[in-house]
Design brief:
Rossmann fold; six-stranded mixed beta sheet; about 35% helix
Length: about 220
């Protein structure tokens, strides 16, 4: 089976005036469909840069990124945006929910943005799996941090993306809510065969994954 994600000698250099700061120094990575992978490392090791490149949010300085057989280096910004909308879901440390909308409206909006309209069966299944079915008519400020993150995860997976990229998804949560959110992500991975890549500095959070990749100074040092 072909890997879902492949990077080859992936490099990213940030330039400020004449100053160059290498963020990735030749990353080679393969991820199979249905894997749950945690990428860990200290601040500044390049893990967030790697996630942004895999999600098509930024372009590499050199190297190759293949996602589901598509070469990001050959895509225009508009093509990457369309691909991202249909194939990749994002979960961030900040929940990024629209405060004037209810949980239900935040999730449904994602389906409409994708363009496939509302799918009530998918909606109900995801809401029940993430245990937010009784919280859907509340706005974000009436939800706990853990509930808001679960709504954000529902919004990310409602359109059935091939890949879910999670950037410190438990970073703003206490231990109990962190464990709940990680358990929900594990359920998504196992029940829906959802491919998950999560970056974190927390080794306890990383332990929820099947595979842990350690990064330092822009390189993978252990897989």
């Amino acid at each position: 089976m072909e890997p879902l994600i492949v990077t080859e000698n992936l490099k990213k250099v940030y330039r400020t005036g004449k100053v160059e700061t290498p963020a990735l120094r030749g990353v080679n990575l393969q991820v199979q469909q249905g894997e749950f992978v945690a990428i860990v490392g200290p601040s500044g090791c390049g893990k967030s840069t790697l996630l942004h490149l895999l999600g098509g949010l930024a372009s590499p300085t050199s190297g190759k990124i293949l996602v589901d057989g598509n070469d990001f280096s050959r895509m225009s910004d508009a093509e990457r945006t369309r691909f991202r909308r249909h194939k990749i879901g994002f979960v961030f440390q900040r929940y990024n929910l629209l405060p004037t909308l209810t949980a239900r409206q935040n999730i449904v909006l994602a389906q409409h943005i994708q363009g496939n309209g509302f799918n009530p069966h998918r909606f109900q299944m995801v809401a029940e799996m993430l245990r937010i079915a009784d919280r859907l008519d509340f706005r974000p400020n009436a939800l706990s941090g853990g509930e808001q993150q679960r709504v954000a995860i529902a919004r990310a997976v409602i359109c059935e993306p091939n890949i879910l990229l999670a950037d410190e998804p438990t970073g703003n949560l206490d231990t109990e809510n962190s464990q709940t959110v990680l358990a929900m992500m594990r359920t998504l991975n196992r029940s829906l065969q959802q491919t998950l890549l999560m970056i974190t500095h927390n080794l306890e959070a990383a332990a929820a994954a099947d595979r842990i990749i350690r990064m330092r100074d822009g390189q993978i040092i252990e897989d």
